[in-house]
Amino acid sequence: MKVMNFSLMPYRPLDIPASKNYRSAWVVLPNTFYDPVKGADEYESYIDLLAASEDLGFDGACVNEHHQTAYGLMPAPNLIASALIQRTKKMKIAVLGRALPLVNNPINIAEEFAMLDNMSRGRIIAGFVRGIGAEYHASGANPAFSHDRFHEAHDLIVKAWTTPGPFPWEGEHYNLNYVNLWPRVYQTPHPPIWVPSQGSIETIEWAADPARRYPFLVTFSARESVIKNLTAYREQARAFGYEAEPGQLGWAAPVYVAETEERAKQEARAGLEALFNDFLTLPPEMLLPPGYTSIASMKKVEAMKKAIGRAGYGGPATRQTLERLMEIGTVVVGTPKSVLAQIEQVRERTRFGTFVSMLQFGTLSNELARRNQELFAAEVMPTLKTW
Question: Are 260 and 334 a contacting pair, CB within 8 Å?
């Protein structure tokens, strides 16, 4: 099993009580809540934590993209990836993921990844996503074209990476007279492409297609939803006529490890409850703007919310406690032994091959995040790597 270290880089100094006067920490929360001096400290701390992943033995570090939100301070994840390239020598650096439909020229993304791939000498993983509903409010992109723009942008980027230029591109959403990538990508034929998702039907079918076989990474989901979606990917692969390998299946989850169960809960509680109740809450119109998702996927989302109490994107129907988050398996908290047992529950039923651990979350302090990261690396990760 490959084990990655992931951070959202939330803005921890947020005045959470005052932020409750607004309907979300996304898009509509005034940026006067952000203090640049404190924010600069946050960037320094988060980059230090992720850069330490290499010496701790992680296979890679992961960053991602969100816009106009206190939930994650990475509107340009390529900049964080670039900083990590300079601080590390061996580990992979995954940008999970770049929101393709939000840009007017996908070649800009192709160029960014090509530069990072060269600068890292082939250590980059490209994560491609549509971006959650709130990103369409932040960018002004039409959510009704989200799927079509994603697919066309993907096809254009891959062709730019793999086909000698210059060549023209005439598509439904993008038209370019000259596609001629400088620099070319370092890896052959191109950087690995991963697909993070909460499990839409269309995404599973698209990622599992034999022409792609992209690793599918389930994020911020309850245990049964993770199992259901990874199983759906396996079944889709079989329907296409092949057996999915463990490396095509991944799970991303917040994790906290301590010497005792009581200490783990005590130290993780404030950070995790802030993440799911304060940073992550989105009203329905921001989570799922009109046209963003198909009817079939909408039904699936609603069924999942009823089953798990809505602990995920979109926020809880009622405030989520740590105990509830642990019960449904959205978070993994406990001693090294119990954390391994919780991860094993999913592995036994899915045989997933990549685990993305979020070891800093919400308001969790640098000290606790560092201790969590080190204990996970010393007492949990060695066993995971033998699976």
Answer: no
Other Cβ atoms less than 10 A from the Cβ of 360: the count is 27
238: tokens are 């079989």
Give the CA distances from residue 267 to residues 353, 361, 375, 376, in Å, rounded to whole numbers and listed in that order.
Answer: 29, 12, 14, 15
Is 315 a residue whose pLDDT tops 70?
no
Looking at residue 324, which CATH number applies to its domain? 3.20.20.30
The tens digit of pLDDT for each residue in 213-269 reads 999 999 989 999 999 999 999 999 999 999 999 999 999 999 999 999 999 999 999
Q: Give residues with Cβ within 8 angstroms of 13, minimum separation 6.
A: 35, 38, 39, 42
State residue 285 phi and psi, 5-degree precision.
-70, -20
Smallest CA-to-CA distance from 114 within 176, 50, 59, 162 is with 162
Question: In terms of residue numbers, what domain contains 279?
Answer: 2-384
Tell me the pLDDT tens digit for each residue of 40-88: 999 999 999 999 999 999 999 999 999 999 999 999 999 999 999 999 9
Helices within 240-380 (DSSP H only): 261-274, 284-287, 295-308, 322-328, 336-350, 366-375
**Locate tokens 């549509």: which residue?**
130
Report the number of distinct structural domains present in the chain: 1
